[in-house]
Amino acid sequence: MEPGDAARPGSGRATGTPPPRLLLLPLLPLLLGWGLRVAAAASASSSGAAAEDSSAMEELATEKEAEESHRQDSVSLLTFILLLTLTILTIWLFKHRRVRFLHETGLAMIYGLIVGVILRYGTPATSGRDKSLSCTQEDRAFSTLLVNVSGKFFEYTLKGEISPGKINSVEQNDMLRKVTFDPEVFFNILLPPIIFHAGYSLKKRHFFRNLGSILAYAFLGTAVSCFIIGNLMYGVVKLMKIMGQLSDKFYYTDCLFFGAIISATDPVTVLAIFNELHADVDLYALLFGESVLNDAVAIVLSSSIVAYQPAGLNTHAFDAAAFFKSVGIFLGIFSGSFTMGAVTGVVTALVTKFTKLHCFPLLETALFFLMSWSTFLLAEACGFTGVVAVLFCGITQAHYTYNNLSVESRSRTKQLFEVLHFLAENFIFSYMGLALFTFQKHVFSPIFIIGAFVAIFLGRAAHIYPLSFFLNLGRRHKIGWNFQHMMMFSGLRGAMAFALAIRDTASYARQMMFTTTLLIVFFTVWIIGGGTTPMLSWLNIRVGVDPDQDPPPNNDSFQVLQGDGPDSARGNRTKQESAWIFRLWYSFDHNYLKPILTHSGPPLTTTLPAWCGLLARCLTSPQVYDNQEPLREEDSDFILTEGDLTLTYGDSTVTANGSSSSHTASTSLEGSRRTKSNSEEVLERDLGMGDQKVSSRGTRLVFPLEDNA
Amino acid sequence: MERQSRVMSEKDEYQFQHQGAVELLVFNFLLILTILTIWLFKNHRFRFLHETGGAMVYGLIMGLILRYATAPTDIESGTVYDCVKLTFSPSTLLVNITDQVYEYKYKREISQHNINPHQGNAILEKMTFDPEIFFNVLLPPIIFHAGYSLKKRHFFQNLGSILTYAFLGTAISCIVIGLIMYGFVKAMIHAGQLKNGDFHFTDCLFFGSLMSATDPVTVLAIFHELHVDPDLYTLLFGESVLNDAVAIVLTYSISIYSPKENPNAFDAAAFFQSVGNFLGIFAGSFAMGSAYAIITALLTKFTKLCEFPMLETGLFFLLSWSAFLSAEAAGLTGIVAVLFCGVTQAHYTYNNLSSDSKIRTKQLFEFMNFLAENVIFCYMGLALFTFQNHIFNALFILGAFLAIFVARACNIYPLSFLLNLGRKQKIPWNFQHMMMFSGLRGAIAFALAIRNTESQPKQMMFTTTLLLVFFTVWVFGGGTTPMLTWLQIRVGVDLDENLKEDPSSQHQEANNLDKNMTKAESARLFRMWYSFDHKYLKPILTHSGPPLTTTLPEWCGPISRLLTSPQAYGEQPKEDDVECIVNQDELAINYQEQASSPCSPPARLGLDQKASPQTPGKENIYEGDLGLGGYELKLEQTLGQSQLN
């Protein structure tokens, strides 16, 4: 995909629109160019200033340098922001024209690539001004360093460790260095909102209905995929060693590590298309749930692989003790993070339940945000994984706290995290594009890359098909072949794999992994993401299934459905699907947790045994008693949640749009509008651009329960 | 051995990160506490402590705990290394430690007497943010929100007075404070508390300028809650917002005032250079901010981005942020740019956004403003104990208290007198007293003071500023409600009720008179601006206003046709039109005068008159739109949607 290609669809298709739009688009690159010129000038002048060595100017020079550095920081951030702006505008064009082959993340990557090329080849390499000293005597690195330079004291902070071979390359290009972020930024700033949003917007009903399968895919599947990729890559590495293409060490643990990071699937593109086309909700829930939990598993897995350090001399042989220690670390971190997230979610729920904070939506939103952020920080401070904690916090918040919030806070929190998620995601993807050119330690190894491509497909296949087979043994509502193919197909890699790979790029093996990961992300997002729509039609997967057209979930319709032939049969099957342990959990949740944490559910006084009556009265909110009178707001929530507990509503949408799916796919690809069949029209209208419609759709899709309220 | 040291350094780094998390966690915890307490207060209608005051109290408590309850860890990082080979301080330092190369980044210069306390307590040191965070992260959302929520109509009605207070007033206050403080400094030198030559006149002026940034959040919050007279509200709010911008630029230009020979004597050339700097930076930032807002307005006008509120919100946010970054990158003041960007966005772009995005952007910035403000105030409380270089000087502090009162008086009373000469609707005495009273200091003064705490005078200033902020926020903020009753200022004036009275007959005359006065208040210059804005800018940048084809001269027909959105010609009762009517109401000054002017087609006029009974309702929407009240917003939204459907 060349820069020209990226620009052409936008401008080419815009011919029908008034010209001012065309005039405006080039404005941004112009500004960007201006920004870069400023940066170039700044770096040139600073190097000039630094060349001066007269003692009178020293102080001034340093101060100026700090100012320049601030200015350059601004410029580099500005670069990203303009990239994002450009992405937004182009995406609007694409959405407007219903071009679905390129998702916004793919586009962000393309723009990132273009700017990366410009930065790489367009800016002059400034001479390095770093000096290597050997006049200090300490034996370990401190986080701050005070240096006495001719009577003046300067404070330096530790930035990072540099492997000796790289000292020269570090100095190369100031601008390139500026646009290279500290990898921890991803973990501490950009990923949390993405992950939280994912957790917060898990479709509750469908998610819980498929919980067993999702957990199986996420845990077992990730482990399987990690091992298979690791073993395959070990073979590839051996091959490379034989061919003499390996210039440094590459251990089996490294291969496993690669397996772990590349197992984190992130099918944003596919999910966005599913969402837009209203593909089958079960498939959506399976994919989304898998990808969300997948990330958590992959993070913890990779960190426990890093922690695997056998005792003794041979540091890379198998050692049972160390292995079990790693497994222990995995379980410890995972359950710790889970607990942390769930606990803060519960605390938030309690706080919002027992205070009347909902009179002040701003305060409520702020509290919600801060509590969720605290989860992350708390987990990090305790040595757990913040991102995992945030994920489970998001799920808990959506499950409990959300019901306590005022109506306004609900939309506020949702919109807030939606915006944060959108910005963070596109930022990461445009950074990925940029990193291909600006990252200075790429190790391209064709064999490794080809091997990795083969490995991820095999890993994905070994993950989906056998597991689906086993799950189908237990599930009555089978996962169809076309679903399996689609899941196999949507093994995109994205932000999480990238963030994990960039976290440590110190050794040769890690650099090779990073480069390979980057290429895999590019390939999967562009090619596989672009191929989703054709694939959907090829696999005959129903699209146009509106999840809200499920029967209005209250008990009456439940009764009706029971006698409804195939639907009820399927409903029963889905019920059977969840093992009794899940059913146990549901009833526990419904009888105890919901009443304790939210205003809904049956009053605790009725569900708890008599001897803890006082406690029960204390914890039950007054609203619950009122709930006996039907149809208050909390009450409808309650009914809805009960709806998702009963697990009985199959999609009773008989109006499956299977026939028109291919239609949609082709039309969307061609970008022309064919309004032939009636259902097609419905679909078109749904996907259409009426702003009210889309906005309401957006909120409805994310939280189907609320909409029914 | 190598491995071990590596593990060691990794551990160090690990520790490093954990510290960061803990530090942020403390702030989160404080904010959560603040929110809960504030809820309690609001619930019981205690008005004497605003949330910012509460944040400061909690910050203080936490600071106290951190200061006296944590053991001073002995960190070796304080050891000073002498380096003979180094002749200047580079921005990055590569240090070779047992064959492992570490990269160090230049942080700051430390003066010699600060080294020892520096080694004291690792946690205290961790809790001290880099001052630039305030300027780059926390202040921009606050300032943008302020600009974005300036109530347009009342703001523009009182524009002249507000500008006078903001520019002239700040300059006066800066000079007066500077002079008084110079007197006190002289006295201190006399009393032997200060060495001669430490504290120059420019330092005093610097203090004056940073102290001039008023920030009456507390007062404004109470005003808003009690629905105090909108004119008073607007005067105070507008003054405080623009004030900040002026004070920031003023501080900057004073700090770069460096005469050639004698560094502290008066030098005309350097002075004029400073003035030039002031004007240049101010104008540049203004231009940068409004340019970005205009780009946003054009983009939102000519693309149909309103179909995707999320994209629209994202674009809005990103472009507003770019205004800040571009200004910083170009060496201007980002905050000032952001302020004007906010004002312009509210004036133009806001009308182009979809109703969903309107709410989203407002809520987003409201939320960010809330968080940032409370973080700053929390940090202030914390800084009183955790900042390690405080210099408490009783005389200086006393002098500063005196100076700010005198300066505030010199700012308000003479200027009000002068303005009253020109204004037909006078600023009454009780308003003047109230404005005098609400000279609180807040986030900006603090951020400006903490930016530079290298030298001894600067540290003294910082301590004094901190105490002043505490005092004014707690005492003045707490005293607002009694003061309001004592000064007999109207409360419970609903902005909208004020207007609803309009059509009712008994108030008709009085109101007409009222309107005429306000009309007269704005000078010719402003009227010119209004008509220009109405005829050209609004139609170019938004969907409202008369079509450009009618307002522009004939010969630029093609351009005007290109720039006018189809909606401007189109059917009148569309969503944009509602706004248009509202906007026209805002421009009523212009409108009523030349009701028969050629620029407004008769159809519109008729519609306006026909709609006049409904105007209050629409006005209501409008006010609610820009207002801060959450509930009003909600109502407005449903109303707007029902109108649409």
TrEMBL record, chain B:
It comes from the Eukaryota. It is a multi-pass membrane protein. One of its GO terms (biological process) is regulation of intracellular pH. GO terms for molecular function: potassium:proton antiporter activity; sodium:proton antiporter activity. Residues 33-486 form the Cation/H+ exchanger transmembrane domain. Pfam families: Na_H_Exchanger. Residues 593-623 are annotated as: Disordered. Its main location: membrane. It is found in: Cell membrane; Recycling endosome membrane. Keywords: Antiport, Cell membrane, Endosome, Ion transport, Membrane, Sodium, Sodium transport, Transmembrane, Transmembrane helix, Transport. The chain crosses the membrane at residues 20-41, 48-69, 133-150, 162-185, 235-258, 278-302, 314-347, 367-387, 394-419, 462-487. GO terms for cellular component: early endosome; early phagosome; phagocytic vesicle membrane; plasma membrane; recycling endosome; recycling endosome membrane. Belongs to the monovalent cation:proton antiporter 1 (CPA1) transporter (TC 2.A.36) family. NCBIfam families: b_cpa1. This is Sodium/hydrogen exchanger. It comes from Gorilla gorilla gorilla (Western lowland gorilla). The lineage of its organism: Eukaryota, Metazoa, Chordata, Craniata, Vertebrata. The gene is SLC9A9.
